[in-house]
Amino acid sequence: MVAPTTETTSAAPTDARSLLQQQVDQDRAQVEQLVGSWLPQLSAKKPDMLANGVTYDYDAIWADFVTNRQQHPQALLLWSGDYSSFKYPDFWITVEAQSFGDGASANTWCDSYGINKDDCYAKRLMHTGGYAGNTLLRK
Fold this sequence. Notes:
By secondary structure, the chain is an alpha+beta fold. The protein has one domain. It is built from three helices and seven strands. Strand 2 and strand 3 form a beta hairpin.
């Protein structure tokens, strides 16, 4: 008589919040290499946020990231609470993994892609300091 075997499989996350966290974990090493640099910030979303006529939930935030990644294959996802240069610690942030020496150059990147000024602007990732001096909005 053969004893029954049991298969143990680790299920991939299927809910959007888990997918977001998994993506942050996957992108973390690349994002950390960009600390101190200016980057184009493509998106900042959190649950219950209203933007562009959409009230965001985790599914909509995940879809927003996927859309950005399709349009910009170097896009990375991070959690704002991991960096001191964000004003609020509870946003899912999409950045382009292209570093610039200054905010104006990162904003020029946004301009070159024709992205709305409210949807793309320069952000410097930092672990020390605060929001002031690390964000350059487009005019």
